[in-house]
Amino acid sequence: MSTEEKSAAPRSxxxxxxxxxxxSLAALLRSRxxxxxxxxxxxxxxxxxAGTRASVVRALxxxxxxxxxxxxxxxxxPDPASYGELLALMGGDEQDPAVAAALPRxxxxxxxxxxVWGADDRxxxxxxxxxxxxxxxxxxxxxxxxxxxxxATAGMSPGRIQDILAAVGLPSTHxxxxxxxxxxxxxxxxxxxxxLLAELPWESREVLDRLVWxxxxxxxxxxxxxxLRALLDRGLLLPTAPGTVVLPREVALxxxxxxxxxxxxxxxxxxxxxATHRPQVVDxxxxxxxxxxxxxxxxxxxxxxxxxxxxxxxxGLSVRDLKRTAVALDxxxxxxxxxxxxxxxxxxxxxxxxxEERYAAxxxxxxxxxxxxxxxxxxxxxxxxxxxxxxxxxxxxxAKDRTLSAxxxxxxRSAAPEVRHRVLALLAGLPEGAxxxxxxxxxxxxxxxxxxxxxxxxxxxxxxxxxxxxxxRIARWTLSEAELLGVTGRGALAAPGRALIGAPEAPRxxxxxxxxxxGGPGDKLPVHHxxxxxxxxxxxxxxxxxxxxxxxxxxxxxxxxxxxxxxxQADLTAVAPGPLERGLADVLGVLADVxxxxxxxxxRFTPGSVRRALDAxxxxxxxxxxxxxxSRTPVPQPLTYLIDxxxxxxxxxxxxxxxxxxxxxxxxxxxxxxxxxxxxGLGLRRLAPTVLAAQADPxxxxxxxxxxxFAPAAESAAGDVLIARADSHRTPPRAxxxxxxxxxxxxxxxxxxxxxxxVRAGDLASTTPxxxxxxxxxGGGESGMPxxxxxxxxxxxxxATMQAAVLTGEALxxxxxxxxxxxSQRVIAPxxxxxxxxxxxxxxxxxVRTYPLHRVTGVAELADDAG
Length: 867
What we know:
- This protein is of the alpha+beta class and about 850 residues long.
- The chain folds into 6 domains: about 5-135, no CATH class; about 150-255, no CATH class; about 275-510 and about 535-555, no CATH class; about 565-650, no CATH class; about 655-715; about 770-860, SH3 type barrels, CATH 2.30.30.
- Helix content is about 45%, strand content about 10%.
- A hairpin with a 5-residue loop joins strand 21 and strand 22.
- About 35% of the residues are buried.
- This is DNA-binding protein.
- InterPro entries: WYL_dom, XPB/Ssl2_N.
């Protein structure tokens, strides 16, 4: 190939990709992973796939606002356009230095993602992107520009075009093509166009001003007014349909001073700081929230320890069960949905799968409880960061107008992990201890993934506007959920949260001298202008695991040491001034009821709670010893009396299965029960002085007598007291729900290298010239180039050519049909031919392979200049 041919401009996207180096191809495949799912056979197939509608739409959706504006400008620019023409469209007649500085990056990004190809003097937007972004009567351009003069006059009569030329003072021409060209040149000439507009009445100028920024279409009557007639006569408005006119693109660009967009946005909006706190305060606040998060999840799982709410037929929690859970946790229902979904996402709760299906804790919950507190938090935080299930949508409606329930289906939102990670990354870009202005975070996210208006929905689908709105809502939910979970403290990103996303060390906060206003330090809260971190690929599983471990390590010193004591008070309460050791907390949770939570937890002792401890197998002596051992204050006398009184009455009555009976050595107690009207529903009757029979079953009899005020104990058939122990209900082992990815995952370096090697090898096989063979005159395709029909040779000729290539070391072009019947072309260098097989180095696969000779359709030698 000559130097002249090598330097020639590419004629297609495939040729443009062919001259790229491996680093550039890797950048393309990393930004558009759908292009290697599966790996294309060669660069032509890669280019074809890069131009499909689905892939282009996905790529456009991931552009930032300025890059998207650049693509929109190219869609209304000449095809091809020079870089100078693009710069003029983006910056207008009065070039904005910020636009000129940012445009090279935007153009390079579009070229890297194969949305634009060609040299700077011949930039081409891929056809599918142009079709999506270019104007049409049904879908105006996102720029608000209409069709060109040539496009708008395509169906106009030649006589009418000549009339327009005469009205604007241009000489008539011999054909419509030259007439349209002359009219377009006039509209593109700034000086002549200004003179033409100066002749118009002000009413006509008002009409143009209303159409200039779009939409460019308007309605006119059959007999338009004089100021509209002036515009129509001069071609400043052109008819597109009966009663409809359009402002030609050239006219609009003149009125816009050459700009394609009303407001180009080359610079992303900065995330502003709402307040700044000392980093130590932020970390301490976040650690307190993290402890509260662990306590809340633990309380939820204990609430469901013996079996939680039933599973709806369609899946999920009922509205009533969610309300009950919210009351039990003392939180609003949306917050309860968040905790339930977090525990479910971490694999701590699941459906038990039994006949009456209920939610319950999983075996993983018991393993989780054994972990140190910081590691338990890190597991919850890591789950939250990567989960696609979005609790914020609970209570909304799905596409079929059904209510979305917690733990139910259809809660996955693929964008959630990306949005959460990006919000935290933006917070990490603020000075340490700074909390953000929420609206500035949303504004930055909209710039990075711009909202799609009605004019752009054909590029992203009818639901795009709703999805973009969802992204903003996910960002708001992220800010509140991060605070609940302890990833942030007082709105600022804490050190463990920074480690969780793998962010670098925080920048130093600006001092008062750096940020003082005109009136001196402290006049107003400074706005921190900083360089926020760029949008990066999501971390790999190994990177996430390392980040989670680092976050746990940073959080552990922030947690207070668990306490082994409480403070008993005379009003039958116990105060835990901090987190308790697990054993102490478990026993105290049975012996007393939680009255209030916060920095200190208050427990209250009641007859019911003491009876619960006795039912669990504790004796009065055990309870006295436990309280004396763990109280820093003397055990109050009222509490001692309460325990002794409940224990003295505990078990005096015995309930067993006859249907059921009650026996007691004290006749007077049985007389009291029979005389009580509240016991009438139990169907009691005396069988003996110390025995009563009941129609109710033993469990109902126990509950009924306890409701009256007695403290009966159950007994076995042998007469032994049965200690009622709560059996923890566990589901079978369950896997945590897998996130639903937003398209194919980003390829790692190993996969990228292998994919590029395979594509290069396949491209070599499909583009290497070959010598003309016997079938060239009969087939189709180009002589000497693969890509047409497979080579066809007889078995004897195929074998002889293969054997000769083994001796000479030459490469061959073969056609091959695999066991599934799929045909392909390959370039191979035969190494050995024996037993009906050929072993060869396959340039297409870039490895040594063995092929059955009977599956080779034919063989041809490569041309002498094939290297």
